[in-house]
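User: I've been going back and forth on whether these two constructs are worth ordering. Before I decide, could you fold them both?

Assistant: Sure. I'll take them in the order you sent them. The first construct and its structure tokens:
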Amino acid sequence: MFPELHIKRNGAKLYPIGSTCVQKFGRTDLNRQVTLYSDLFRLRAAILNNMRITLTSDYFSRAMIEYLNDEGAFTPDRWDADDGYAFMLDMFNKRKKDEITGPSQMRAWAR
């Protein structure tokens, strides 16, 4: 789960690498990975503290929704042929969250 680097010269692997060190490498891919993991830890803490989780940028990002999809978090149901990924992304992208219908809010929360 932590970023790792492979040294081409000698084949060594650096693991784990902390977020402060990752920033010094200047690699966009590692910076994105650290941001994603930080967001996942923040979401996990909120869940463990029984906080109300909303599908907003307080807890989610497009990158996180994509990661969760890649990890199989969205299971098939009778409404979504794509396992719910498109639905979750659509709900996240809505600017006016108060216009999301009750059934759609429940579907998003259940996922």
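The second construct, handled the same way:
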Amino acid sequence: MNSLYLAKTSKTPEIAFDPKSEIFEISGRSIPENSVEFYRPVMEWLDAFQKEKGSSIILLVRLEYFNTSSSKCMIDIFRKLEKMHFNGHNVVIKWYYEEQDEDMKESGEDFKDILKVPLEMIGYISEDE
């Protein structure tokens, strides 16, 4: 299975997944003009990946900010991972948030409350401070 990589822009996050390392990362800002179109390759890639026997995935979410339409797409991604989890795949989501960023912390907690897949909250102190 091939890796997936989408380069970061001022409006879209970097998306990188190497199936050999089983690490999937989404980082940056997610405010694309059309979230559904932007995340379509991710959804298609996950559809193909979930067919791999014994596949595991650790999703690292390191977003600075995301808009409402991106939130919907994130839920869709998380639901696919949830389905994989229920089908016997080892799945963990790690939600990173700046300790001073209450909005990102609350968003992670909201996702954690509605999902039935392990989601770890990881607070950090920004290097800029």
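Notes on the second construct follow. The longest strand covers residues 56-66. The CA atoms of residues 95 and 121 lie 5 Å apart.
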